[in-house]
Amino acid sequence: MNKTEIPFGRLISILGLVSASLFFVGWIYRWAYFSFFQIQITALNLPTQSFLFVPLQVFFGDISRTLATIIGLTVAAITIYSLIWLFNLLITKISRTLNRWETEINFPNTPPIKKKSNKYYLKKSSLASSTSIKPSPTL
Questions:
Q1: Could you tell me the end-to-end alpha-carbon distance of the chain, in angstroms, rounded to an integer?
Q2: Closest C-alpha among 36, 35, 28, 15 to residue 54
Q3: How far apart are CA 103 and CA 97, in angstroms?
Q4: How many alpha carbons lie under 13 Å from residue 39 in its C-beta half-sphere?
Q5: Distance separating alpha carbons of residues 92 and 130, to the nearest angstrom
Q6: Based on the number of CB atoms within 10 Å of its own CB, is 25 exposed (0-12), middle (13-18) or buried (19 or more)?
Q7: Do the Cβ atoms of 24 and 59 come closer than 8 Å?
Q8: 10 Å Cβ neighbour count for 96?
Q9: For residues 101-127, b (16+ Cβ closer than 10 Å) or e, as one string?
Q10: Are 31 and 41 within 8 A, CB to CB?
Q11: In a structure prediction context, what are the per-residue pLDDT tens digits for the chain, which is 139 residues long?
Q12: For residues 119 and 75, what is the distance between their CA atoms, to the nearest angstrom?
């Protein structure tokens, strides 16, 4: 599969999601506002761009809304990060448990494998008996 990367692809995708979210919030806000006066929002011929700017008033209308928005975004980011961390931890634990069970099922009577150090030791007696080459004299 040939994968080509689009320049600024991530930025474009994030901007697309943000603009869709802003449009949705703007539409809902305007719909709720005008439905209070029993006016259909589709009968007003409002420009599409206005739905993108109305959420700014919703989220940043005054100091209390701005603080609530910042706190909400911070809590959402921390929650998402914590859930990702928790899922990774859970997946790691499940993977280790399944690997241990698989080892016990495949080899039920063998003791668990202990990790050995990376140092290799060679006995002098085994080296001397296995080699028949003698060192050459120096000139």
A1: 64
A2: 28
A3: 10
A4: 9
A5: 46
A6: middle
A7: no
A8: 10
A9: eeeeeeeeeeeeeeeeeeeeeeeeeee
A10: yes
A11: 456 777 788 888 989 998 898 899 999 999 998 899 998 888 888 888 888 888 888 888 889 989 998 999 999 999 999 999 999 999 999 988 888 877 767 665 666 556 555 444 444 444 445 455 555 555 5
A12: 49
Long-range contacts from 95-98, C-beta under 8 angstroms, 24+ separation: none
- 4 secondary structure, DSSP code: -
Longest CA–CA separation in the chain, Å: 111
Structure tokens given for 16: 């697309």
Q: Which secondary structure element, helix H or strand E, spans residue 97, and what is its range? A: helix 63-106
Q: Which sign, positive or negative, has the C-alpha torsion 126, 129, 130, 134?
A: positive
Q: pTM for the whole thing? A: 0.51
Tokens of 117: 């150090």
Question: In this structure, what token pair is assigned to residue 119?
Answer: 């140092």
- Could you identify the residue written with the tokens 């928005």? 69
Token pair listed for 69: 């928005």
State how far the Cα of 115 lies from the Cα of 97, in Å rounded to an integer: 18
